[in-house]
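Ticket 4471: requesting a sanity check on a complex prediction with flavin-adenine dinucleotide. Repro inputs:
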Amino acid sequence: MERHTSWRAGGAARYYAEPAMSEEARRLAAWARERGLPLVWAGRGTNTLVRDEGFAGLIAAYRAQAWQLDEAGDTALLSVEAGAPMAGLARRLGAMGWAGLAWAEGLPGTVGGAVVGNAGCYGGDVAGILHSAEILIGEMVETWPVARLRYDYRTSALKGATDTDAPPLVLAATFRLTRGDPAELAAHMAAIAAQRKSKTPAGSSCGSVFKNPPGESAGRLIEAAGLKGHAVGDAVISSAHANYIVNTGAATAADILALIEIVRAEVLRQFGVPLELEVRIL
Ligand SMILES: Cc1cc2nc3c(=O)[nH]c(=O)nc-3n(C[C@H](O)[C@H](O)[C@H](O)COP(=O)(O)OP(=O)(O)OC[C@H]3O[C@@H](n4cnc5c(N)ncnc54)[C@H](O)[C@@H]3O)c2cc1C
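Returned structure tokens:
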């Protein structure tokens, strides 16, 4: 799975697929169910690590990307399939003069991954703009209003269900947008892109490894613990941003996991704060 995850590390999936439409996804899920294989839905793998031992089931990365805009005066509802890239969508809608997604400029990953994990940055998050999500559960397609997703910081009702025997698939999301000035939006997004560029360490990573503890910054704690630059194999705690672990070459999942355990143990020992993973380990 190192070819399908942004950390560029990890073992093999027994089966890997890229369904491009909901019917393909439905048939893949039935196929896995018949064989008793565990199933994981994926997006672009920018928040996922597969252990070196591999995953003994099917990983299916959803690729449907169509979208449609329903305008009503100064507001619009954007319905978009879950395989669409968040950053590309934000740019396209911004250029059309629709505000709401600007914060997602440069955010790696898909709409589906963002909806599941309540992705957020630069003053916005999915919870703040989602109207509803279309979800495949078993053979049924359900429309969930945003309240049903029970959003909180980097989590949702769906996130807890991703590890079950029949994980729900986000097929599509509907976002609420408002009309904005294209030039102002372009300037705002250019500022976000510049900030992101200056803060993002170079190299392969999964973004922030740990969630921020309440009222704290995980990166600040890791830095204060003296762990910047600490390495296991080719996995290194970034000296630019301590909540990033960068694969500088041929890091294995075991290297990254060992570093994660060192960080957790040191931050707990020095500050009494247990760090929770933002990244999903398979
Ligand atoms: C350099 C870098 C910077 C980042 N910066 C940020 C940031 O600023 N803010 C932020 O919130 N995140 C950030 N991230 C993390 C990542 O971008 C988000 O978590 C993103 O939403 C993950 O999307 P994905 O498609 O890659 O999901 P994946 O990693 O493929 O999957 C993540 C989870 O979602 C589930 N999933 C994915 N798609 C579906 C679907 N269609 N249906 C059901 N379940 C699904 C998977 O099973 C898994 O549990 C960053 C990552 C990187 C590499």
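Notes from triage: Helices lie at 22-34, 86-95, 111-117, 182-199, 218-224, 253-271. Leaving this open until the requester confirms.
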